[in-house]
Amino acid sequence: MNTYFIKLKEPTPTIVKMFNQWENDPNLVPLTRPNRNKVDVERHVITMDDITQRLEHHHIYLIYLDDKLIGEMNYMVDPPHLYQKKPGAAWIGITIGEPEARGKGIGYRAIQFLEEQVKRKGLKRIELGVFEFNMQAHKLYKKLGYQEIGSIHDFTFWQNRMWSDIRMEKVLG
User: Fold this and answer.
1) Which of 34, 104, 147, 155 has the smallest number of Cβ neighbours within 10 A?
2) Domain N-acetyltransferase, which positions (predicted)?
């Protein structure tokens, strides 16, 4: 099992297709984006321009397993939605889009790689949000040394109710 990561410089039709597939996977939607209500969970369409615009503010890395694109991860520097507004922080996100790639430790290795990229940029802190029902991701982040720094109540809709977003951070050594 060979896992590797490639920085996305320019979207291709294949990448747009995969991003749309993951963005609209009913198993992933509740985990990857906040939804204010049931309507928000409905289909989103991502275009080539959307990804190109995203690249202006995000450093995106594609996750491959044995030459198959299985996910993406990214970071932004000092976005406005940080819980703690300390300059020099990265906000990270990860999606393991392909079901057969989940639960194999790929997310663990991917986050370690992303942390290394953030360090190389000279950033000293990483912050992220994980929805309170996403226990698997919460456990992964704790294992990687992330600590809870706060919570935003009634942040996302799932299973007919609102859930909190747990904010976590890791100070890089």
Assistant:
1) 147
2) 6-173
